[in-house]
Amino acid sequence: MVRRLDEAGAVLVAKLSLGALAMGDKWFGGRTRNPWNTNEFSSGSSAGSASATAAGCVAFAIGSETLGSISSPSTRCGTTGFRPTFGFVPRTGAMALAWTMDKLGPICRAAEDCALVMQAIYGPDGSDLTVRAAPFRWDENLDWKQLRVGCAKSLFEKGPAAEKPPEGASADELKQWESRKPDREAARIRHEYDRRYDTAALDALRGMGVELQPVELPDLPLDAIALLLNAEAAAAFDELTLTNRDELLTEQGPEDWPNLFRVARFYPAVEYIQANRARTLAMRQVAKVFQKVDVVVVPSSNDAQLILSNLTGHPAVIVPNGLRGKDAPSPPPVDTGDDDSIGGPGTPVSLTFLGPLYQDAALLAFASAYQRTTAFSSAPPAWLLLRACRAPGSGATGCKRESSA
User: Model-level pTM?
Assistant: First the structure.
């Protein structure tokens, strides 16, 4: 992909940070920050790619996604992230995490920019044998009004899952669970605040003349199926585990790679096969959804759509969808990186569009139409623009926010 971008005239200006072994925004030297609020972080693992693009440091960047690593930082940083169909862009030379889920794609400020990058990087290279010779026909004048658009209505209506006390919990564990009640209530309030942006987005789509058809994504035990990722990642980094070099990684919690790798070695073979069978079922059921519609609108904050579409390999475009107002609930005092919707005044929200396999160009055309209609530009944060306008010798006077689009 780097060679193709070089040949297309792109200029490599930086290699950006990512979470250690492609998890989150934590790396050996620290954490990557969100330019909209530098007290918060970029999520990940394509943290630096999204942060640098949002801040206007680069015109676009490349990210990778196995289970949210383009989607999550794009949501946090207010960029347009594109996760192509699995098998559309070769991964030759990239670090493997999960061979059947890894995808490379662009992180930009607009969907049309994503399409320009895609034109340069898609298609077989003779090395990555997962890549199909499928066409990418970008047409900025595509009549997107002919596209059938579905809305996963139930996902927009769902709030945070009600957390129940763990079964068989000890008295101390129950006490800890009870102590987290204020945090759960704060998360619910933040979710209710953000819901207004989802509602406004659906109203904007209707205002464009889109007839939203209600659709339901399959309800499957996605967390159990997603353990396939851990098994593949453990195989990819088997040597790291067997030589105990996994102890060199900074993060050593129960949900961090070193321990996930260790646990994955104990998955029963039968359960691994059953998870693959369930994944095949998911692929078939999602394919049936896209027999009815060409685009599905889903909330970026919903984990179910994120896990499902990554397991099935369907493309997704994550578009910035506004900035939280001054009345937004305060973010939690500690950003654990577990929630991409922690909020806070002046931080971005996003919306996600899913599409059928290898219909990436039409999906991006629809997302581009939405961005033009809503007129939300993913400009660099105001503080960075203000600094540029005041810079000695910049020749900029009276800079306006809109000038950065």
Answer: 0.91
